[in-house]
Write a structure and sequence with these properties.
The complex is a heterodimer of chains A (about 475) and B (about 500).
Chain A lengths: L1 H5 L1 H19 L4 H28 L4 E3 L4 E3 L1 H27 L5 H18 L3 H19 L5 H32 L4 H10 L5 H19 L8 H7 L2 H26 L6 H24 L4 H21 L5 H36 L10 H4 L1 H15 L5 H15 L3 H27 L12 H19 L2 H14 L1
Antiparallel strand pairs in A: 1-2
Helix pairs in contact in A: 2-3, 2-5, 3-4, 4-5, 4-11, 4-14, 4-19, 4-20, 5-6, 5-11, 6-7, 6-11, 7-8, 7-9, 7-10, 8-11, 9-11, 10-11, 10-13, 11-13, 11-14, 12-13, 12-18, 13-14, 13-17, 13-18, 14-16, 14-17, 14-19, 14-20, 16-18, 16-19, 17-18, 17-19
Chain B lengths: L1 H16 L9 H22 L8 E11 L4 E9 L3 H17 L8 H20 L3 H10 L1 H11 L4 H30 L4 H7 L9 H15 L8 H8 L2 H26 L1 H27 L4 H21 L3 H32 L15 H15 L5 H14 L3 H26 L16 H19 L2 H18 L1
Antiparallel strand pairs in B: 1-2
Classes of the chains: A mainly alpha (about 475), B mainly alpha (about 500).
Chain lengths: ~475, ~500
């Protein structure tokens, strides 16, 4: 019973997803009702899941479940809330899309199952279970990306599927190494083995770390595993792109933190993977930003920018050095940054959905004069883009602040310098969109409003990023207690 | 009370944003009311400030963010001392002036005045922050309103100029952020008071001179120094008049203030070694700025380059690293703010009327607009350093303070003054005197209250400081003495 209780947040979503699919087939409902029913059921499932997580906290039900396959701790709870919140916003943001396309209830169900996958990614402490969670998440996403069923969307889904399969193989290969060396799939057992390993096993451990980083780098979308990003971001339905860019990325980082900090954090190869992540971080930031400069399609631009942002997260991971205080500081800064990034990037994508719905284009050039036609949307998008740049008093600033702080404290001043200089480069293209919206003449003067669902989702994101910007303490506390678990 | 003054403009912003579109003409009333109250509050603090007691007064302090893992306590801490109080007063004064001279703004007035007020909060915040991270926050926030004000309400090549301004400043502040983090890590605090007490740190993870360079580069870009000054003529020329006033009057002072408050006061040992370099940079800026001023064809650009030259004196005074030099540098910030602010107001008025700023096109304006002409002469004479006007006091103090330490550079500075006399008088002569041009027959003088009021107030301040500089000088001296002691 205790196991089921700790699995409750995920279970609620699985049940909701099941009800949606079964109900859609069996109940005699018309288009509009079906849509409302599935969206409502999806949101209800998410609400129950969040409440259940809350109950787990209040009742202090932290602990292992299913013989240590899964764990409920502050780290997994943090990500439970993060993923549930993101999924709720994504479902709200998808209502317009569902109205336009021939409705299929699986969409909402798939959002829920992928959320379950990601929640499990953050809460499993066994390589096999992590792998299963990864696949659950990935397969849901393959279908979601293809949801539009047009040429672009299908091409994107195929690319995502093929490269995803390669990354899965790499991850599995890395896991096999770890299992072969340590004789266990449990992260804590592996940690014990690594802590006591002699230097002879070092090459094999490094190899395992490299394979794992490569496989998971695909989820995190960092260079050199980023080549799928621009095409998939551009081709997928925009709400799915938003979902990929925040949730899938955050889940990738959650697994990386679990595996690297817990299993490989203490012992002879921690400085090796720290150096590896530092290098990947520097390259991802620079390549992502430089490529984003040249984009004319706003979804592609945000795709490249998300590669650069992922590089910035990696700075925090690289700062996880072998000694304890920094270990926590680095991880907590990444967790914190993931939280702020979720608000920010979601807000940006929702604004883009709302604007593109009306102007019928994703070209940055067509954003001219949007401020005149829809002042609140333009203001919201501006806030998100400035937050991505890292301008205070918005959430994104604190994300970068803590990551750079962690880097400086881990003797990685050079990496922090590369990071801040990349912020300057990124200002060029983020602010470029703002510039288009505010200083150029619109093609026509017709005013427009976002749909109520999008408006609600947008408001939530912007309020979140301003609130965290002005008073970051609660989110910081949460991320510090999440990181403390891994220490 | 200080926190109230800093954040009152934000309350004004909320009020303006909530105005319905039909009522948008009331935006300027709200902005004027708010900035007048802020000015009154800071003027009250100016009078109330206990000049016999050194250190920060009107301090509000509370812990704002407490990180378990990095021993960081970020504080919301504000306070004013002899160095920052006059600059805060200047900010509040020019804040009100900039609202008044924008009385005729028709394009999207709600947004315009809202951004002006955001700008005021960020500037007051920079001068009153007692925590380095808080200082940085305010420093960065200022970018956003400036960007919009220049790119939307500017003229000419405004989009390019706004870009250039933002990228230059952002580049500088990016470097500063790394410097701040390294400094805070080593000293285990971001509190400016504690950092100053600790003095030089030797066991940083990167050499202290590197931290010094990272931090001061943001200030030098802002000041600006040659060759990092090129954003300034562009931004000035294309910004709307009120923004030019704030830009020249207050924003440049953020750089000077930062050098005194952070670079010199927190890292005195490095500053002492670097002083000769600062002096050389200052001399180059003074002379190059002055020479460039001589060849300008555009009135606003001309004053912009004269600012480059004049801000060189601030750096020159700072490089003296003694009480007299630092007092001179801070006086120069204040007086340059008033004088150049006034010059920009006047040029803006000429431009509004004649729709050109090209010096070659303008001629014989004095008979058409005697009030503007008289004001221009006053501001011009103050700018070139005529005794009994404000500019003289600060420049002479800078030279007195610097001469012993860096003779050659001081002489270069004095030569700069000679150029200043040349370009100011020559410009006034060409624009206001000379043969009357029939094209300008129909131009009218400044008659509205919102035009004359600010100009007369600025003149009064310039004359008052010129005749009785002690009112500001004593205050600045009390503010910079502790810094000079640390350097000494």
């Amino acid at each position: 019973m205790e196991d089921i209780n700790r699995f409750g947040p995920e279970l609620a979503l699985l049940i909701a997803a099941g009800l949606i699919v079964v109900g859609d087939v069996t109940l005699p409902m018309r288009g509009g009702t079906r849509r409302v029913a599935s969206v409502a059921l999806g949101l209800a499932g998410l609400a129950v899941s969040a409440l259940w997580s809350l109950v787990l906290i209040v009742a202090d039900e932290r602990g292992n479940a299913f013989d240590g396959l899964m764990v409920v701790d502050d780290f997994s709870l943090f990500f439970n809330f993060l993923f549930v919140g993101i999924a709720a916003v994504i479902i709200l943001a998808s209502v317009d899309l569902l109205e336009k396309s021939r409705f299929r209830a699986e969409y909402v169900a798939l959002v829920l199952t992928s959320t379950v996958g990601m929640m499990l990614m953050a809460s499993t402490v066994d390589l096999i279970a992590i792998f299963a969670a990864l696949e659950l998440q990935a397969i849901s996403f393959y279908v979601l990306v293809a949801f539009l069923k047009d040429g672009r969307s299908s091409e994107a889904a195929l690319k995502y599927l093929l490269l995803g399969a390669v990354s899965t193989a790499l991850t599995l290969y890395g896991m096999a190494y770890l299992f072969g060396l340590s004789g266990s799939t449990n992260l804590n057992d592996i940690a014990a083995f690594v802590a006591g390993a002699d230097s002879g096993t070092r090459p094999a451990l490094v190899l395992a770390a490299v394979f794992l980083a490569a496989g998971l780098g695909f989820k995190m979308a960092v260079v050199p595993f980023q080549m799928w990003v621009p095409d998939v971001y551009q081709g997928a339905p925009t709400p799915v792109t938003a979902y990929l860019s925040v949730a899938s990325k955050a889940a990738g980082f959650a697994v990386v933190m679990r595996v690297f900090v817990v299993a490989l954090g203490h012992g002879l190869i921690s400085s090796d993977w720290s150096n590896m992540f530092a290098a990947i971080a520097a390259i991802s930031m620079t390549l992502g930003n430089v490529a984003a400069l040249a984009q004319s399609d706003i979804k592609r631009m945000l795709g490249y920018s998300s590669i650069a942002q992922a590089g910035t997260f990696l700075i925090g991971l690289a700062a996880v050095a072998a000694n304890d205080p920094q270990l926590l500081l680095g991880t907590s800064s990444v967790v914190f940054f993931l939280g702020t990034y979720a608000f920010t990037n979601l807000g940006a994508f929702i604004a883009i959905i709302a604007i593109s719905n009306k102007i019928g284009s994703d070209q940055i050039g067509d954003y001219a004069g949007v401020a005149r036609r829809s002042p609140w949307l333009a203001a919201g998008l501006t806030a998100c883009l400035l937050s991505l740049t890292g301008i205070p008093p918005l959430a994104g600033f604190w994300g970068k602040f803590w990551v750079f702080n962690a880097a400086v404290r881990a003797d990685l001043v050079w990496l922090a310098l590369i990071g801040v200089l990349n912020s300057v480069i990124s200002a060029y293209y983020y602010v470029g969109v703002v510039l288009k919206m505010y200083t150029q003449e619109p093609a026509n003067d017709e005013a427009f409003q976002p749909s109520p669902y999008l408006g609600l989702a947008m408001t939530a994101a912007v309020v979140g990023l301003v609130a965290v910007g002005l008073y970051p303490a609660p989110l910081l506390d949460a991320s510090e207690s999440a990181a403390a678990v891994l220490g | 009370m200080l926190s109230l003054a800093v954040f009152l403009p934000i309350a004004g912003v909320l009020a303006i944003v909530l105005l319905p579109k039909e009522e948008e003409h009331r935006a300027k009333l709200i902005a004027a009311g708010v900035s007048a109250v802020v000015l009154a509050l800071i003027a009250f603090m100016f009078v109330d400030y206990d000049r016999d007691r050194a250190g920060y007064q009107f301090v509000n302090s509370t812990t704002w963010l407490d990180s378990d893992f990095s021993n960081i306590k970020l504080k919301y801490a504000v306070g004013l001392d002899g160095l920052s109080l006059p600059l805060a007063l200047l900010t509040a004064f020019l804040g009100l002036v900039s609202v008044l001279i924008s009385w005729r703004i028709e394009l999207r007035p709600r947004e315009y005045f809202a951004w002006l007020l955001v700008l005021e909060t960020s500037l007051l915040g920079v001068f009153s922050a007692l925590d380095f991270v808080l200082f940085f926050l305010f420093w960065e926030i200022e970018l956003v309103p400036m960007y919009f004000l220049i790119s939307v309400w500017g003229s000419g090549n405004r989009v390019y100029s706004a870009w250039k301004y933002v990228l230059y400043t952002f580049f500088g502040s990016a470097l500063m952020l790394v410097g701040i983090l390294t400094l805070g890590f080593t000293a285990d605090t971001f509190d400016i008071r504690q950092l100053a007490r600790i003095g030089d740190i030797n066991d940083a993870i990167i050499p202290t001179w590197a931290i010094f360079t990272l931090i001061i580069s943001a200030f030098l870009i802002k000041l600006p120094i040659v060759p990092l000054h090129t954003w300034l003529p562009d931004a000035h020329t294309d910004a709307p008049t009120a923004v030019s006033v704030i830009l020249a009057g207050v924003l440049l002072k953020m750089g000077g203030y930062g050098i005194l408050r952070m670079s010199l006061s927190i890292m005195p040992d490095v500053a002492r070694d670097a002083s000769i370099w600062l002096a050389i940079i200052a001399a180059v800026s003074i002379l190059y700025g002055a020479l460039m001023t001589l060849i300008q064809q555009d009135l606003k650009r001309l004053i912009a380059y004269s600012s480059v030259s004049h801000m060189g004196y601030v750096l020159l005074g700072a490089s003296a690293i003694g009480t007299v030099g630092l007092t001179g540098a801070s006086m120069q910030m204040l007086t340059h703010g008033l004088i150049t602010g006034m010059l920009f107001v006047l040029v803006g008025m000429v431009y509004d009327r004649a729709h050109t700023r090209n010096i070659a096109d303008l001629s014989g304006l004095a008979p058409r607009m005697p009030f503007i002409a008289v004001m221009m002469v006053v501001a011009g004479l103050a700018s070139l350093g005529l005794p009994a006007l404000a500019g003289f006091v600060s420049e002479i103090t800078v030279f007195l303070g610097t001469f012993e330490k860096h003779e050659v550079m001081t002489i270069a500075g004095v030569i700069g003054i000679a150029f200043a006399a040349g370009y100011i008088l020559w410009t006034i002569q060409r624009v206001f005197w000379g043969a009357p041009d029939p094209r300008w027959e129909s131009l009218v003088d400044a008659t509205a209250w919102w035009e004359r009021g600010p100009l007369l107030a600025m003149t009064a301040a310039i004359v008052a400081i010129g005749i009785y500089p002690a009112v500001m000088m004593d205050l600045f001296e009390s503010g910079v003495t502790p810094i000079a002691q640390r350097l000494g």
